[in-house]
Every structure is written in C-alpha cells, then in structure tokens.
Amino acid sequence: MRSGVPSQHAAKPVVDQIINARWIIPVRPRALLHHHALAIQQGRIVAIGPRDEIHAAYTAAEITILDQHVLMPGFVNAHTHAAMTLMRGLADDLPLMTWLNEHIWPVEGRYVSPEFVSMGTELAIAEMLRGGTTTFNDMYFFPEAAAQSAQNMGMRAHIGHVIIDFPTAYAANADACLQAAADLLPRLQQMPLIRQSLAPHAPYTVADAGLRGTRELAEAEHLPVHMHVHETAHEVEEGLAQYGRRPLARLAELGLLNPRFLAVHMTQLDADDLTICRDSGLHIAHCPESNLKLGSGIAPVARIREQGIAVAIGTDGAASNNDLDMLGELRTAALLAKGFSGDPTAFPAWEVLEAATLGGAEAIGWGDLTGSLEPGKAADCIAISLDHPATFPVYDPVSQVAYCAGRDQVTHVWVNGQIRIRQGQAVDWEESALFSRAQAWVKRIRDKDQNT
Ligand SMILES: CSC[C@H]1O[C@@H](n2cnc3c(O)ncnc32)[C@H](O)[C@@H]1O
Ligand SMILES: [Zn+2]
C-alpha cells in the first residue's frame, strides 16, 4: 500500500520522524502491510508506504526501526473512570448496587477532590499508556483535574462532565453539574489533547429534569453524551417500576438517543431495545470484564453487531475490572461473543481490533483524528513486539495481537507524534515517584475504610 507518498523526482521533504515496522496494521484500510513505514510531521501522519519508497521520498530527523514489531493505532478505551485506580481491589466480588452503595460511593464521598482525581488519573494514564492505549473516554468527578492530568502527561482524553442528582463533593445536584459543565467547557477547549462530552451517570441516578437539561446543553454546545445504560437486570426492572418503561425507551422519549450518544454496558437488550439502538444510530461501549466481575450480565454483542449497531470496547474503572488493559479486554470481548452466541465467527480478530481502535474513536466523535493510521490523522500509534514466547510463531500478526499478545509486549507508544513509552518504559515520568505520591491516598483510604 502506498498512501500520501510524494513523487521521488520532487525535492525531498524533511519530516520529524519515520517509523519502519516489520508489519503495519493501519486498521483502515483493513490491510496487513509488510516492511512498510510511517512518515510523521508535526504530530500528523504524512505518508504510509513501502519502506524503500518512504525513505526515497523523505528525509527524517529521527528514524525508528521496529523489525520484530506490529505498528498499529493506539487503543481507544471507550469507557473509564480513570481516577478509580486509587480504589483498585478495595471492594471485590459484589453485585453492582452493593458495590456502589456500600463501598464505592461512601469512599468517594469521603475522599474525592481535585487532588484525588489528579493522582488517580495519573496512575491510570501510566497504566494505560504502558498497555498501548492512546485515548480514553472518561466519566468522573472534577473533570478539569482529569483533563489537566491527561494534557500534562501527553495522553489524548475525552472528558465527560458528570451529571448526577445526589449531592457529592463535586456538585449539589444535576443543575449544579450542568452549570459546572457549562462553566468549564471554554477552559478545557484550550487543551489540545482534550475533547469533551456530557456524562449523565445512569438512568437510575438522573431524573427527567437533569436528562432534559443534558439534551439542551448537548445540542447547544454540540457535545456527545456518554452514559451507563441497561447495565443490570435490576436497573431495567427498577426503571419499569418507576417510569413505566424500560430505561432505554425513556431515554429515547427524552430525545437523547442519536449517533452522538454512547451507551455503556447494555447487557439487557430485548428486540425492541435493539430496534431503538439501530434506528437511533447510537454507539455501544462494551465492557465485558467489568460486567463479568460484577455479575451484571453479558452484552449480546453478536446480535448487536448483526443489527449494524456500532460497538466500541472499554475497561470501565479499575475498581470493577480490575485493570485498564485493552489487549486483555478486546480478547475477552472476542471470546465472550463466540461463547455466548455459540458461533466462533462472532467478533473475529480483525473486527475486534477495529472495535478497540477506530470503533472507539468513532464512538466519541474522534474518528476524524485518531483510531487508524492514515495520512492526515494524528500519529497515535503503538508498537507490539512479537519476538516473545507468547506470540511465536507468527503466521498471522492480526491473530497474535487479538488472541495472544500481552501488554508487556507493547514497546513504543506515540501520542500526536510524541513518544510516551520507549522500550516499555515511560519517557517523561518515574513510575516509582507516582507510586510514592499515591501511597499517601492509599494509606488514608486503608486506615479508615478497610475492615470497617
Ligand atoms: C459520577 S462519576 C462516575 C460514577 O460512576 C461510578 N461507577 C463506576 N463504575 C460504575 C459502573 O459500572 N456502573 C455504575 N456506576 C459506576 C463511579 O464510582 C462514580 O461514582
Ligand atoms: Zn462505568
């Protein structure tokens, strides 16, 4: 494949860098390229083509040679609560509402603050970048703190302004959340790696008034909406009892569903729900490991995809997953779709890689910039070394990435052309220093909250 490569007779342009790789999986187009290279200038991909042609066409200030590696777009984690790394392993083996009501919400009530969110988000970014994630779609309190952490650490983030009815350390009610979102929008617009959404928490925590306010602000500011929906059977039963209709139907009636709506979880879907999803054009963030661990249910991904409904992949927070590992998550998604449907062709390797990259970018309205390696797009890319016992032999690199590579094999990560991970190590921060700072929070939470 040859894309964006100038004629070799013209004067040779100088680019910032060229990355040579044994294999490139650009995701779009769906192709496996052998011995190709990527030319990058000012954070953007300017060309992708056979190695010799790229070197004949460009001079580069920096050349990286990845001769045992797959180069591919970074993963887009379509649903996170990044700061919840500080609560990883605090409450396990519980159903969702017990986990939230008796453990997570009380701890959040005591500790969540801008400082807590900065610390937890930094830990999450360190983990996600090491695992090859270059963009995350977040929903948490104090979104400015999360945005600032992502911008400082050079990671791309889609930051959700949370909307929730009950009083928290962040805001008194849904109206105050909407006001905080409106006030913050211009500040976050100044951050080049950040885009924003509105994030009403769930149908059971935001009444109709807050959802109408969400729709109005989303329409006025052209913002996407990111929300937990149909996570458990209990949520659907409770919604039916309280509102006389299933939560998804209620959201449709409130005018919230459209291609800029990202419904997270969606484990409970009847035929009418699937029709609503298909007709509205919404996207689904599938979080299989969090759903399994909380015993919430299994999203019927094969049936969802048969209807042409777009699926992205997310980890959810580190307190319910308990990791932020997109390679692990996409593998679980592929295997679960096959096992649950009884069809091994459900969610094949190529399609699950697409869902974990471009599918995530499109789900958050960022498909113009990231999620695939194409000229004009941001150089958000990762290298995975296949020179490892876990991935030997290599008949098909796509199969290796989907079914057997581990995140310890992610050697290089670039966001917007800036190297963030080199030879498996963070470039700009010491992980041990992050852990030392985080330890103060861990001590406070442990002393007060464990074994009480
Ligand atoms: C209001 S900020 C986000 C809010 O969501 C909570 N949360 C984390 N994981 C889940 C989940 O799987 N379902 C519902 N709510 C979840 C988190 O603790 C924050 O309070
Ligand atoms: Zn969640």
UniProtKB/TrEMBL annotation:
Zn(2+) binds at residues 79, 81, 228, 316. Residues 70-419 form the Amidohydrolase-related domain. The gene is mtaD. One of its GO terms (molecular function) is hydrolase activity. Keywords: Hydrolase, Metal-binding, Zinc. PANTHER family: AMIDOHYDROLASE-RELATED DOMAIN-CONTAINING PROTEIN, AMINOHYDROLASE SSNA-RELATED. The keyword DNA repair does not apply. SUPFAM superfamilies: Composite domain of metallo-dependent hydrolases, Metallo-dependent hydrolases. It is an enzyme of class 3 (hydrolase). InterPro entries: Amidohydro-rel, Deaminase_MtaD/DadD, Metal-dep_hydrolase_composite, Metal_Hydrolase, MQNX/HUTI_composite_N, MTA/SAH_deaminase. The keyword Zinc applies. It comes from the Bacteria. Binds 1 zinc ion per subunit. It catalyses: S-methyl-5'-thioadenosine + H2O + H(+) = S-methyl-5'-thioinosine + NH4(+); S-adenosyl-L-homocysteine + H2O + H(+) = S-inosyl-L-homocysteine + NH4(+). Catalyzes the deamination of 5-methylthioadenosine and S-adenosyl-L-homocysteine into 5-methylthioinosine and S-inosyl-L-homocysteine, respectively. Is also able to deaminate adenosine. Its cofactor is Zn(2+). Its EC number is 3.5.4.28, 3.5.4.31. Substrate binds at residues 108, 201, 231, 316. This is 5-methylthioadenosine/S-adenosylhomocysteine deaminase.
